[in-house]
Each structure stands twice: as C-alpha cells, then as structure tokens.
What does this fold into?
Amino acid sequence: MADRGGCCPPMDLFRSEAMQLVQLIIPMESAHLTVSYLGDLGLLQFKDLNSDKSPFQRTYAAQIKRCGEMARKLRFFKEQMLKAGFSTSTKSGAENDIDLDDLEVKLGELEAELIEMNANGEKLQRGYNELLEYKLVLQKAGEFFASAQRTATAQQREIGSQQMGDESIETPLLQEQETSTDLSKQVKLGFITGLVPREKSMAFERILFRATRGNVLLKQVPAEDPVTDPVSGEKMEKNVFVVFYSGERAKNKILKICEAFGANRYPFAEDLGKQGLMINEVSGRISELKTTIDAGLLLRDNLLRTIGDQFEQWNTKVKKEKSIYHTLNMLSLDVTKKCLVAEGWSPVFATKQIQEALQRAAFDSNSQVGAIFQVLHTRESPPTYFRTNKFTTAFQEIVDAYGVAKYQEANPGVYTIVTFPFLFAVMFGDWGHGICLLLATLFFIVREKKLSSQKLGDITEMTFGGRYVIMMMSLFSIYTGLIYNEFFSVPFELFGRSAYACRDLSCRDATSVGLIKVRDTYPFGVDPAWHGSRSELPFLNSLKMKMSILLGVAQMNLGIILSYFNATFFSNSLNIWFQFIPQMIFLNSLFGYLSLLIIVKWCTGSQADLYHIMIYMFLSPTDELGENQLFPGQKTAQIVLLLLALVSVPWMLLPKPFLLKKQHENRHQGQSYAPLESADETLLSEANHDSHGHDHEEFEFGEVFVHQLIHTIEFVLGAVSNTASYLRLWALSLAHSELSVVFYEKVLLLAWGFNNVIILIVGIIVFIFATIGVLLVMETLSAFLHALRLHWVEFQNKFYEGDGYKFHPFAFALIGDEDD
It folds into this structure.
C-alpha cells in the first residue's frame, strides 16, 4: 500500500486490505470438503454464479431441504428441553466425526421416540386427571346422597312416630290406599353427575332451568382446590354438580348442555356400598397411574439429557452443512459436469492460506485431481475489508454507519479513535462525571468474557458493544474536566494554589469588584478562582468559543489533507491541483487566519475585537485597523488572503470540467495509448474514474460542470456553516457546566442549608438521581450525537465518499449465533 501510494504510512486501518477476484475450479468429489475448509478459514466471499436460477432449480436443493428438516427436529428438541427446564451443554465435541446420514437417522429415531413418549405421557396424564375428577365427584356426590338419605330416614321415623301416636280404626286402610296410589303413580328420576368450570356455573344452571322449563333439580358443591382439566390441561376452579331429571327428552337436553359448557360427566351408583368400592378402585388406579407417569417422565428426562449433551454439537454440524450446501449452490457446473467453478473476493494476504486449504481438501478427500486457483482481472470494484480487533471494531462501526469506505480510500476510523472521544469530552468536561462513566464501562470490560456469551437486552447489548468507545470518552472527559477544573461543578486546587486573592480579608467584593493576582499563573487548566466570580461566564465563554473554532478548523484541515492522500494514492492529479490546493487556500485564508488571530491575541493579551477585524476584512479591506491591529503588516496580509480566497473559488470551479473533457477526448481519439494495466493498478484506478464517466460512456460536459458547480458552492458555504457548527462544542460544554452548577447549588447545597437530616437525605437522593439521569445519561447521549454529527458532516464530507460495500466472507464463525 505504501509503495503504491508513495505518501501513506503502512497502517492496517488507514486503507482497506488489497483484494483480488479469484476463480476456483474444484473437482466434484472434493467440493464439499473444500468449501468446509474455506469456511473454517473465513477469508473468501463467494459470488453467486447461479443468480438466474430459483432455489429449487439449484444442484444441492435436496441436501438443503434435508438440513432444514434436521434443523426443524433440533428446534423441536430445544423446545422440549426448555419446557422440561434443561439447558443445552456448552461442551464442544469433535463434530467432524459425525456423519450427516447417521445424524439424520438418529435425529429421526429420537424425534419418533420423543413424540411417542409425549403422546403416551399426555394420554396417561389425561387419564390421571379424569380419575382425580372422578374421585372428587364420587366424594362430593356421595356426601350429597348420604346426607339426603339420612334426611329421608329421619323424616320417615318422624312420620312413623306420629302415626303410632294417632292410631285409629281407619289408619291401616289409609296406609294401604296410599301404598296402592304410590305404586301406580310412581315416577323413576334419573341423575347425571360431573364437574363444570366455576365461572360458567351460574350460566349452566340458568340454561338448564330454561331448557327443561324448571323440570330439573340441580345441586352444586364447589371443589376446595383447583382441578386440572383433562381436556385443556389447565388448572381451574370447578363445581361438582348433580342434575336430577325425568324422561329421556330431558336427559338428551342436559347432555347437550353439558357438552356445550365443557362439563365433564362421570358415572355414579346410588348404592352406598358400590360407591365405597368405586372410590377404593379409583384410588388404586390413581396411585398406579401416578407411578407409571413418574416412570415415563424419568425416561423422557433421561432422553432429553442425552440429547442436551450433544445438542450443540449436532446443531453446529447441521448449521455448517446447510451453509456449505448454500455456498455450493452458488457455484456453477462446468461443461463436463465433473467440476464446480467458483468465483469470489479474497484479501491478497490470504492467497497462500486459501491454496493450502485447497491442497488439504484434495488430499483428505482422496481426489485424484487438485483444485485450480487463479486470480482474475476485473474492473469491478472490490469489497472493503478492514482487519479490526475488539477495541477498534466499535470505532469502525461509527464510520460504517455513515457509509462503508470505497475500496482503499482513506479510512476516517483511524482518526475517529482519538477525535471522537476528544470532541465528546470537550462537551462533557467534568472529571467527576468522567470517573462515573469510567467505573460503569469498567464493569463491562472486566466482565466482557461472561457478558459476551449471554443474551443481553437491546440497550445493554448496544452499550456493551461500545464499551471501549465509552472508556475512551470517559478518559478524555477526565482530562478535559481537569482543564475546566470541574468536579460535579466544584473547582479544586489540584495543581497548586490559585493565582488570585481577595482585595480584603472579608472577600465581600469578590463577585462584584473582582480579585487581584498575587501569584504565578495556575499551572494547568482553569484557575479555581474564576468559578463564582463576576467574570466567570464571560471568561469561560470566550475561552470555549475560541477553542471550538480552533478545534474545528484543525479537524477540517485534516479532512482536506486526507483528500490529498486519496488523490495521491489513486494517482488523480486533477483532484490535487483543482480541489485540494484551492480548498486549503480558501479555508485557511479566512478561518485559518481567524485561528491565527485567536492565538496571537491569547499570546499578546491584546484587546483587539476579532469580530470587527473579520467583518471589515470583507466590507472595507483597505481601511486602517487602528487599535485592532495585532501584528505589523496585518492590513496587507488581509488583502492578500482575501484575494487568494476569491481566486480559489473559480480555481475550484472552472478548470476541472474542461480538463476532464479533454482527457475523455484524448482517450477516444487514440492520442494517449498506454500499456495495459496490471490487476492491482486496474482495481485502484477504477474507483477514481467512476464519478467522471466510464470510458465506454458518453461524456456529459453539462452534467460534469453542474456537479462541479454544486461541489464548489457546497464547499464555500460549508466552510462558513461547518466552522459555525463547531460552536456546538462551546454551547454543549456551557450547558453541561451550568446544569451541574444548578444541581449542586439548588439541590445539594440548598438541602444542606436546612440543617435537617431528612431534608439532607432527600436532597442527596434527588442530586444522585438528577446527576445520573440528566448528566450521565441524557447529556452523554446528547454529546455523543453531536460528536457523531461533527464527524459525519463536518469532517468526513471533505474527503470521504463512503460508497463501498463490506467484505462478507463465508465463515463458520459468523453463523454460530444465527437462528434458522
């Protein structure tokens, strides 16, 4: 990279990895193993050579279907294990030893066995629940019949005793008459027993009454404990009922109503002796079923444990096989149908590793012919690939969220590692808050191994992913907080004593008349005596506003310098002479000069008005500066800079479109023949020509000129608006500082002044929650978003095109956490 560009340091992140388009010709017998080894390597992005075919027309559609079916069975096993409360074993096994055909058979057998066990278990459980309900019916209904019989016996005895006392000559005759009448008019009553859900019992009773026109007798007794319903398997409160009826027609109506209300019916004998026998029999069957169900559950649990021990191993195997066949479907068959042809992108550094994988696959599959590896020449733009680690990944993601870098253009991610947390800290400068952020992020960093293997919530996962960004932000916040000398808005004399003192011992005039300087200047940061004085806000506002302009101009200059590195790297001299140079002249003639004035004013202690200087530099550049003169020859320098700024605008606008037109004409008239470019040169130069029309396309001069006009206007206006945009650093810093002061003085100090313990405790709690909620959460998010905007808009628009696409290699490591 450095040799090609001639100006750029050999940094891994500064430019994306050099890529190459490769072609593999793989024999059919070693194709599966070859793709498997390449998946382990994870450095080749396959191109789909069968994009015109539907998934069902591809060669390995049947194998993918098989893998999908096995994945379905594994999902079924996982659901069953979760229901049973088992977790899958995390120990990894030698998955390569598993044969896919054997695994398919085994999974089928296990699924059939588990389904049969579940069906038998459900059947037994339903029978068990029915018997429990039946026992309940026998007990409750038996109590009802027994109490009814006792009542009837007592009534008969009472009637008998009355009759014995009133005996007369006519009594026997009357008894015979009653008996004969009863026998002739006796009606046999039937009854139905069962259970009905308690919430439906009132409606059940009402419908029964209406359907039979009141010709039923219903008795209900609530069951004390909830009962498991045999049909639904849910626990619910139920009532035991007995319905007495007369006639078959009434019986049919009652049966239909029971069915509609989900009332479970059970047979019942009138005879008390039979009832006792039935209760004993049901109790015996319940205990037998309970033993059988427990044994079945034990067998099922053992089976699920066996599955759980190998589940991860099987799941990984199936996922890998499915991804291998998906990849094989992207390969095309050659004419002889004995080889598969693959094309894909790989980093240049991975050439040797890919060739070794191909040789190993050919040897392990006992293939007579090895795979052929060759590099293809193409004008297609390669994918962008940066080798990042756990520290740099989050910063690279911040850049990629705006747009993936074009192939081998300068990557702003390198500078973002420092500039992003620093600009955040300028707005968040408080070393107390910085320490709180640091402690929070250290929790994630210390426990990162444990947390990385867990499922986290959306917000927690996002925070965990950016833990190193937050760590850098907190460290820079501590640094800027020490410069601002703010610890929860309280100043400390950390680096020595203050240079200022009160005019008298009482310090009455400290906030009105001011202080006097009695010692040397405070060595580091803002003197603590400024806080609370009458000149605090004017002083800090002036300091932070000017510092924001200096930082903004510096970062924008860095962006323009990076555009020079891009132009040099891609050998684009037009962009150097007609973009980089005029942009540097324009920006620094105006805002670079303003930055110089700020530094000179700080160094000399001058009282010059910088607003006046900059305004009259445009309105009346030939006027005398008077007391606003900061250095000799300033007036001449301003006129020269103003002329340079005016010249740089047409310099940016006019020459480039005409020179591009001339280059295009020369290429098509054959006046600039050149040797054929090598593959690397082709890839590097291709992206550079994309935006100015391809060789085989018509050159639209009007379109190019308008594009250049828009680009020029955007830069000229952007130079002003972007510089003003950096003033958000001052505004956010001031807001953060003032909020800290409000919470400290109006909450904590106010509660302290009441001399009441309860009010003090409440004040401390309110202060802690306000600090965490507003300053450590909302202000952090606010400063983060503003720093993001400054990088995406003000910095990256100077050089970053961001129209590339990411390198997505075929890698087994990337499919581990994916769910089918």
